[in-house]
Amino acid sequence: MPVNPSKSIWLLLAGILNIVVAVLAQTVAPGLASEFARGLLFGVGAALVLCGVMARHLPNAADASTPALRRRYMREYIPAMAGYVVAVLGSTWLLKQNVEDPSLRALVALAPVPFVALAMRAMVRHIRDTDEMQRRIEVESVSLATALASLGYFAAGLLQAAKVIDIPSSVAMIGVFPLICLVYGVAKVVIVRRYA
Questions:
Q1: 170-184 b/e with 16+ CB inside 10 Å = b?
Q2: Three-state DSSP class for residue 158
Q3: What is the pLDDT along the chain (196 residues), one digit of tens a residue?
Q4: Is the overall model pTM greater than 0.85, yes or no?
Q5: Listed residue (175, 150, 190) closest to 43, CA to CA
Q6: How many angstroms separate the CA atoms of 127 and 125, rounded?
Q7: Where are the transmembrane segments (predicted)?
């Protein structure tokens, strides 16, 4: 059963609105919003657009697991991701405030990690407790995402070594998990459609 089309339309519209506001903030009033705020608006907008597009192609969540399992997953996953967002924003802000002590800088920089670990725990528990068919779809999606993200990073590493591209190592390292999540979402759409 497909997702309610109105939900995906609202996600798309919210994402487009965020992107438009980010672009207007940069072109019309560049001093009004900081570069960080514009980047955040653009990133959230792009994520919402992607979620809206994917929501149109994924089956209804009710087809994948029981209501009790979905409630437990949301109870565990949403607070973890909210904590992650707050921790990333807070640690980024704190690190720009000239925190000098290396151990304190390390502690602040690693603040988002426990929240990602909690989100991963929620995902693993959800996959473990779904039925056999849904587990197969999830495992194939995660496997394909990991393989494609690894291949992409390997290719980028070769291009970096050949001095064709120049990506800062911190950006490359931080991007591994989000890239795997993004490719997982796309892979899941393809795999679900194959089994449908």
A1: eeeeebeeebbebbb
A2: helix
A3: 444 566 677 777 777 887 788 787 777 777 766 777 777 777 777 877 877 777 776 665 545 678 888 899 889 999 999 999 899 888 988 888 888 889 999 999 999 999 999 999 999 999 899 888 889 998 999 999 999 999 999 999 999 999 998 888 888 888 888 888 889 888 988 888 888 7
A4: no
A5: 175
A6: 6
A7: 35-55, 76-94, 106-124, 144-165, 171-191
